Amino acid sequence: MRLDYLTIFPDFFAPLELSLPGKAAASGLLEFGVHDLRQWTHDRHRTVDDTPYGGGAGMVMKPEPWGEALAQVVAPGSTVVFTTPSGERFDQRLAEELATREHVVFACGRYEGIDQRVIDHAREVAEVREISLGDYVLNGGEVAALAVTEAVVRLLPGFMGNAASLVEESHAEGGLLEYPVYTKPRTWDGREVPAVLLSGDHGAIARWRREQAVRRTAERRPDLLHPSTLDDGSPIVRAT
Ligand code: ADE
């Protein structure tokens, strides 16, 4: 898989070298390209934004640098992801879908967004997804692009021996939040590990974990609970 990032803040992507994606790149599963959008400007000030037609607060990203950037970076078969608070909400299902793509180009908007004609044009030359990380507004799309990257890269086949752990996890349809987890020591700060986890009774442990997962989901994310979720054997959403 190849991932390209178009941004006016290329430094945001330095962590790609450090974390999961860095390991994937080192193992040859993944290639990255980070591109400063301003390299496609032609004025002395390297201008990427201008005032909005129709008035209103803030600035809009100009179409010309984006047009040149996309012409250079997008290839047949690419998927272009515009990270924007007005996109479809990112979730595990979308991460799984993006993990099947050969080439994803992240277009990271700033200010009040990118001139709509850029997105309309991109739709004519590539698959386009407009993706929001959640119902809140960030200063720009870079952090969202990093979050999407990490969620996608860890799903790549052959990455981090994921086969076993991915069977149990799922924020996919019907998932529950993960049950609480414990490790050694048995007593810490006067607090005990739940006795059932020390019992060696695998059936009882599985039942306890499931009850905890259902309780947590009901308390924190009741929107995830629907009748099929409560069928036995629903996947549990793991935190890590
Ligand atoms: N850019 C600004 N806010 C965002 C959000 N919530 N998701 C994705 N990109 C964004």
Automatic annotation (TrEMBL):
Coiled coil start-end: none
Family to which the UniProt record says this protein belongs: Belongs to the RNA methyltransferase TrmD family.
Residue sites binding S-adenosyl-L-methionine per the record: G109, L133, G134, D135, Y136, V137, L138
Chemical reaction(s) catalysed: guanosine(37) in tRNA + S-adenosyl-L-methionine = N(1)-methylguanosine(37) in tRNA + S-adenosyl-L-homocysteine + H(+)
Main EC class the enzyme belongs to: transferase
EC number, as in UniProt: 2.1.1.228
GO process terms (BP): methylation
Protein's job: Specifically methylates guanosine-37 in various tRNAs.
Molecular function terms from GO: tRNA (guanine(37)-N1)-methyltransferase activity
Location (main, coarse): cytoplasm
Subcellular location: Cytoplasm
Subunit structure: Homodimer.
Keywords: Cytoplasm, Methyltransferase, S-adenosyl-L-methionine, Transferase, tRNA processing
Protein name in UniProt: tRNA (guanine-N(1)-)-methyltransferase
Source organism (scientific name): Nocardioides ginsengisoli
